[in-house]
Structure formats: structure tokens, C-alpha cells
From TrEMBL:
It comes from Kribbella alba. Gene3D superfamilies: Spore Coat Polysaccharide Biosynthesis Protein SpsA, Chain A (3.90.550.10), Vaccinia Virus protein VP39 (3.40.50.150). This is Glycosyltransferase A (GT-A) superfamily protein (DUF2064 family).
């Protein structure tokens, strides 16, 4: 005996509502795209299995993604146990039924066509403690309602429930669910032909740098490298960015004259340290998470690229490019010119340069997560003090100081005031 009806219990792949555990490595939209691809693989395997009836027990809308040939029944019930029981009831047409989820895209028609003659039920367990399929000859709410769902022992509990009802159960091979980034990577490696695997490979090498930067701010391990794979130390020190200002930071900040604009403020350690000194300061960053973390520390921050209009243009006492932020945009000469526009006449521009004095590398960088994701190239520049001095001179900034602290390199510059500005000042 084989199943006469195949049921897929599924949720419409809407960003933010499906595969939320994938969002430790992927955006909500990317996680939803992976869910959609996984569901497409599952539906293709189901449709290739010769049975009389194909059913989707659906939460959400099927418009635009469900292939033809499936009868849709809406999910009903309060918990997953009730929704599973209802799916069997609503799909029943007098034939044995096999229900599968949308999280095992590696399922095959051969697995779905298993002969379970002599058994009352079929159960396929998953590696995480759940189960990927359940087969019943006819609906039986007793078999499902009250079984704890979404635990690491759901599969065992389901098996015990079936046996407690006197069911003879055929166990199918154990499969791995697609729930976490590690699951996605493992399935992509083991089953490279799947739609979800092909999408995973594309996503692994095309992450937006902002996504990985925000993952780093949230505590994930992310490293920065050149496109050649060499590490970029100044952009791999997120732990320092998230910690309070250290001795080298405080030494640099002792030069600051208020008000201070911190460009690329990250999680706000510099703006916070300035506030503690009683120096008015504002952080700017393009990362929403960085701005949130800064304001959470009680310091002001604004989400805006430095190239766009900023408050107080031409009136800032000091403008900061800490933590290698001289590299923002990959054009340090243009960035220093922008700083000169922001600072007041004779105001201060403080730059943290690469410790390698001779470095002048405008090549883009790549962010890499511990989970294997790699961003597309991010325009950046790595420049030592000699290159910074050249670029500053072209921006009409004159050097005033150059020092080292804890292996870090700093320079300060003054914006040269024009004759008209000096006359206005006096």
C-alpha cells in the first residue's frame, strides 16, 4: 500500500514570517527566498510522485507561487498539532494520506512512494528531533492533538502517541530540516542540484556589506579582508568598537574641540566618551543598528551618508575619522575635502590612519561571516600616514600633529581659513 493523497503543510513565504532562524545570517527577504525555493523543491518532488491527489494545507495566500495541480485547503486550528489534524481531515477523500512539511527540500518521489502495507502509519524523523512526514490511513485527531510541537523531542513524542493508540508504525529514513544557516549550508553541499542549494550558493557570495556589518555589531564574528583574502585588521576589531573608549581613544579625544562630528560612529563609543567629557558631539553612520546602539548609550546619532547634507556644515569644531574610517567610499582625498567643508575655519580634522606608514591601497574590501557568507566588494581605502598627508594637503588641510598609541596611528589637521573668513572673524 502507498499513499493515495500527498499533503504539503506550508506557510506562504513572506519576509519576516518564515525561516526566522535563518535571519542570523540572512535578511528577512533572503530567508523568505530560501523558504520559497525549499517549498518549490518539495512541491516538485511531490508532484513527481504518482498519486491520485495533491493537497497543500496553506497558511497565507497561494497567488503567484503555487504550481498547478494542487488542491488548496486553508490551515485551521490554534496550534500546529491542531492544524496538522485539521489538514488530514480536510484533505481526506477515502485514501491513505502522507503529509510532508516544506522544510526538507531533499525529499524524493522514491521516499514518498514507500510501501507501508501492513502498517497503520508512517513517520519520518528529522535530525533536530522533529519529523518530516506523517502518514495515516484516515484522519484521527487523537494521533496529533496534544503532542508537543517544535521541540527536540516532538518526533519521539509523536511516535509514542501513535504506538499508544495501537498503531503499527513504519519509520522512514531520517532527514535534515532546513531551519538554520548551518542546515542550509549542509543541504546545499549534500544536494547541490536543488533550487534552494543554487540560491544558497548565490546568496553566500553576494551579501550586502551593510548586512554583515550589522551582524558584527550584533555580536556575530565577521572579518574584513581585501579581495585577495588578506585580513584588514582595522575593520575586524568590532569588539573594540563595542567596548568603552580605551586609552588610545581617550588620548585622541583630548585633542578635540567641540562641537564634534564623528563620521562612521559605529556603536557610539567615541560619541559617548565625548559626552562624558562634557563635549557636545554627534555621530553619523549609514547603519540603522549603529545609530540605534549609539542612541541607546545616551549619545546623539544620525543615520545619513557623509556625502549628504549634515547639520552644522562649516561650523564643527572637530571632525573625526576614527577606526580607519578615512577609507569610507574608497576615495580619501574626496572624504578629506568633505571634512574640510564640515569643519569651521581653523577647525580640527582628526584621522586614524593605517599603522603601515607607506600603505596606500584603494582596493575594495570584502566582509566574511563565520557562517561562510561573503559580501560583494565594498569601496574602501587603506592608507597610512604618508598618503593621508598627501591627500590632506590637496584638501587644504595643514598637518599639526602625528602620533602613535597602542599600535594605532593618528594625525590631526587644521582647515586653512581664507582671507575673507579671517577678516570676518576679526
Amino acid at each position: 500500500m502507498t499513499a493515495g493523497s500527498l499533503i504539503v503543510i506550508a506557510k506562504e513565504p513572506v519576509p519576516g514570517r518564515v525561516k526566522t532562524r535563518l535571519q542570523t545570517e540572512f535578511t528577512p527577504s533572503e530567508a523568505a527566498a530560501l523558504a520559497r525555493a525549499s517549498l518549490a523543491d518539495t512541491l516538485a518532488a511531490v508532484r513527481a510522485t504518482p498519486v491520485r491527489r495533491y493537497v497543500v494545507a496553506l497558511e497565507g495566500d497561494s497567488t503567484g507561487w503555487l504550481p498547478p495541480g494542487f488542491h488548496v485547503v486553508p490551515q485551521r486550528g490554534d496550534g500546529l498539532d491542531e492544524r496538522l489534524a485539521a489538514a488530514f481531515e480536510d484533505a481526506y477523500s477515502g485514501l491513505p494520506m502522507l503529509l510532508v512539511g516544506m522544510d526538507t527540500p531533499q525529499v524524493t518521489p522514491e521516499l514518498l512512494m514507500v510501501d507501508w502495507a501492513g502498517h497503520d502509519a508512517v513517520l519520518g524523523l528529522t535530525e533536530d528531533g522533529g519529523y518530516w512526514c506523517l502518514g495515516l490511513r484516515k484522519p484521527d485527531r487523537r494521533a496529533l492533538v496534544g503532542v508537543p510541537m517544535s521541540t527536540d523531542h516532538t518526533g519521539v513524542d509523536q511516535l509514542e502517541r501513535l504506538r499508544s493508540l495501537g498503531y503499527s508504525v513504519l519509520l522512514l529514513p531520517m532527514l535534515r530540516d532546513l531551519d538554520t544557516p548551518a542546515d542550509a549550508a549542509a543541504l546545499a553541499a549534500a544536494f547541490p542540484h536543488l533550487r534552494v542549494s543554487r540560491l544558497h550558493r548565490r546568496l553566500q557570495h553576494s551579501a550586502h556589506p551593510g548586512l554583515l556589518f550589522e551582524k558584527a555589531l550584533g555580536g556575530a564574528r565577521v572579518v574584513a579582508t581585501g579581495t585577495d583574502g588578506r585580513a584588514v585588521p582595522s575593520l575586524s576589531e568590532v569588539d573594540r568598537w563595542r567596548a568603552p573608549a580605551d586609552a588610545a581613544d581617550r588620548l585622541a579625544l583630548s585633542r578635540c574641540e567641540g562641537p564634534v562630528l564623528d563620521i562612521g560612529c559605529g556603536p557610539g563609543r567615541i560619541v559617548t566618551a565625548l559626552a562624558e567629557r562634557g563635549i557636545p558631539a554627534l555621530g553619523v553612520d549609514i547603519s540603522a543598528l549603529a545609530v540605534m546602539l549609539t542612541t541607546k548609550r545616551g549619545a546623539p546619532a544620525l543615520r545619513r551618508p557623509v556625502q549628504e547634507p549634515l547639520p552644522g556644515e562649516g561650523r564643527w569644531g572637530s571632525v573625526l575619522l576614527m577606526d580607519g574610517n578615512i577609507g569610507i567610499g574608497g576615495a580619501p582625498r574626496s572624504l578629506l575635502r568633505r571634512c574640510a567643508e564640515l569643519v569651521r575655519p581653523e577647525g580640527l580634522v582628526l584621522v586614524e590612519a593605517d599603522p603601515d606608514d607607506d600603505l596606500d591601497d584603494p582596493a575594495p574590501i570584502v566582509l566574511r561571516s563565520a557562517g561562510g557568507r561573503r559580501s560583494h566588494p565594498l569601496p574602501w581605502a587603506r592608507v597610512g600616514s604618508r598618503a593621508v598627508l598627501r591627500y590632506a594637503q590637496a584638501a587644504d588641510l595643514r598637518a599639526t600633529e602625528d602620533w602613535r598609541a597602542d599600535g594605532r596611528a593618528f594625525l590631526t589637521f587644521r582647515r586653512t581659513a581664507s582671507v575673507a573668513e579671517l577678516a570676518q572673524a576679526y
